[in-house]
Amino acid sequence: MSGDKNFIPEYGWKVKLNHVFPERRDQNFFPKLKQIPPLLPLAFRYVRYMVSSYRHGRQPNMDYAKMLTGKQIYGAPVGGIGGGTIGRGFRGEFCRFHMRPGLYEYHTVPADQFIVSIQNCERDTVYQRVLSAHGKPRHGLSSWAWGFDGSDGQYCALYPRAWTVFDIPELSVRLVCRQVSPVIPHNYKDSCVPGAAFVWTVENNGDDKLSVSITMTFKNGTGSKEDRSGGCWSELFEREDAGVKVSGVQMHHSLNKMPYTYAIAAVHQEDVSVSRLTHFDPCGKGKEVWEPLLRGGELDSNPPPASHKTRNGEQLACAVCARLVVAGGTAGRATFSLVWDMPVVQFSGKKHSYLRYYTKWFPKDGTAAPGLSHYVLANHDRWESEIDAWQQPILRDPELPDWYKSALFNELYFIADGGSVWLLAEGLGPTDPRSEYGRFMYLEGHEYRMINTYDVHFYASFALAMLWPQLQLCLQRDFCDAVPREIATRRSHLYNGKVAFRKVKNSIPHDLGDPDVRAGPASCAMQAGGWRTNGATAADPVADEEPLELLNAYGIHDVADWRDLNLKFVLQCFRDQQLTGDEAHLRAVWPSARAVMERALEWDQDGDGLVENSGTPDQTYDSWVMRGPSAYCGGLWLAALFSMGKMADKVGETGVAARYRAILVKAKQALQEKLWNGSYYNFDCSGTSRSNTIMADQLCGHWYLRASGVSDQVFPAENVKSALDTIYTHNVLKFRNGTLGAVNGMRPDGRVDDITIQSEEVWVGVVYALAATMIHEGMLEQAFKTAGGVYHTVYHRIGLGFQTPEALFAEKHYRSIGYMRPLSIWAMQLAWEQRKRPAAS
Question: I need a surface site. Which of 198, 445, 664, 690 has the fewest CB within 10 A?
């Protein structure tokens, strides 16, 4: 009766609309007593920093006083990459708005809805209801019928699409809404479109002909107080081209003084009529919408006078209705679009204005909404064909677990909904990929407000490198630009009070800035010339900074000598060249790779070829201190040495290649002698009782080499196999009976290492990376059991899908919702494809 796309697919995250998750968790954890003493100086300094931030009218970029409790409501978000997103709950509500670059507003807006109206052959309305099981709002829209029975509905997300089914058994009617966002690998034009299509299929499984109307309503703003600031107005529009005619309403308003436009529209089809309402009060009873639909299944053909600009305190909403007649035993279709046009954006300091990347193809002057609406409605079928061509080979693979097929695609939400900002780049040379593909930025997490945090992107980068490789190359170029920079501003770091340069030459910065830095009243920070006032706390960025200009927004630790940042840059340069074959890019990044590696050589204090950790938090596990050579940084070091030799060969610097290979020979021997204990690599060489902790991430360097297609035994094969077996036995199976992934640190006697908060956490992204390593080594059953534990916990037990946290505790708590690192699940897919490639050739 209708195409396969209209029905719940075989794979995906599926729940009933009245689903209740079996477990609730929060972030209200408290450190154990033995974990507190090292944290006390940090806590004291952080409180001063936090109070200063609040006093100056800005939120700390890591706000531990207002940690968010995840809402168990979210489904697949709406929108393409880098132009903002709108969350949509699995019960049918619109929620979580990301319109301001890098910033979120967690509001559910009752006026943003779909409504169904059904009339029988006599044109009597026999059913009319809001299509959401979220519940009736406390205020406003009291004339609308709310409370769709969630037991009669089902939701399935397989990002970038989602299906919502509404069954109306008393009329033998089924409504299926298919939400389609343009997130399409290797398609850079469509993937940046800020909008989505909603394709409604109406199945009349009864005998009598019915008239069915689907109405979309939407209001200005994001659900915040700013929605009432006035100056919003709406207008009708129509656009017809290439045989596709669309009609809609656009609403013009502003957010933080940035003008933008929402537009909702429907496509004209045979036997589908479209009616529109330019404005109604979303805080009123809503009769302007409800009563005409109840009378005749259409919006009023004589609407109120043309919309005026709202006054202070007023809000504005509009509506578009598609009406179709569906004979018994048949189906019909109505298609809507939701787009937003915010072409010029600023970060909170408002120092510069930037153009969104989609303006490469659409008007830059704020008039693009009608064209965007037409583009969505004219092209969504093609988008779905491209999405199917990408997804179906994975979905049809019988060797892959069903849960993995859901996890792989649904975790990709973060590429669009991770505070992503995709901008046009100007003033760069023709050989620079940013000239064509722009600048791409995303947050470390919804709560950790730092752009392109590099130690975490190292794990997440597989999603870009495999699906939008040019964005990965552009991001790498931004870090190349940062390598030679030195920022002589001194600041006092919160962890230990150390005063240091903000950015040291020939180093990779922790991040490329904070999107929410604003000028504030003067306070003190140390500069090379002495103390000065600069509008920021000593740990804070200086006033008026912009992302990409003033780096390292992270103010807790000194990252100038972080052991992993430089090494991770080298490994990504090598991995990217191996995956793309782009030697021109390799030659462009090679000078930066050499510079950061030469600086890293300084960390070998005893000349044995192996770098030492400093005894301070100097890597991504930034509360888990490593002293002397460590498994984590030592493994990264060996992998980076190997990669430098290979890259030097490719650029023709044979002397450099020989030098790094000579160091690698020494480093391999030192790692074996100092850290290998016969079963696994010790955590570090501190000589403490914790130095033989089993670290889940100890083979991180080996993983990256295997992902880069390297089969050389940089790490002895027997060591790798033994270490993985040990990790699986201890960190996975002996932790929560193997149902929660791999705990970061486990003692040899089977007790969790709780020396610090991070050692007793499960890091979701690290678990996926570990599982990828297992796949590379042929441990398929162990890999999918390890990774499946965290997926089932996040999506099925604690209800944090589409806001996957950084860390899970054994019970009750999690940390940092909406985090970048879980994108590392795409490293599992790369490992799977590389494993199967030889057999296919």
Answer: 690
